[in-house]
């Protein structure tokens, strides 16, 4: 499940935590929000940021010709 968590501190700082989004696509999800919040001071990527999605192929190789022996 994809979640965005925001912690707003009394001094006005906002901490944003993104979970459930694999890879760098979290930056695309949060870009518009960060633009409205103001200056971004730091980024701390989580382990999910460095995760690579693996796609498995279900293609099977079949032999189209048969030998005579």
From TrEMBL:
InterPro entries reported for this sequence: DUF2997 (IPR021375)
Pfam families xref list: DUF2997
Protein name: DUF2997 domain-containing protein
Organism of derivation: Halotia branconii CENA392
């Amino acid at each position: 499940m994809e979640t965005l968590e925001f912690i707003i501190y009394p001094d006005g700082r906002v901490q944003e935590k993104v979970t459930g989004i694999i890879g760098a696509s979290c930056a695309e999800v949060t870009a518009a929000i960060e633009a409205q919040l103001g200056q971004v001071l730091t980024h701390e990527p989580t382990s999910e940021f460095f995760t690579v999605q693996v796609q498995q192929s279900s293609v099977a190789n079949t032999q189209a010709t048969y030998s005579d022996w």
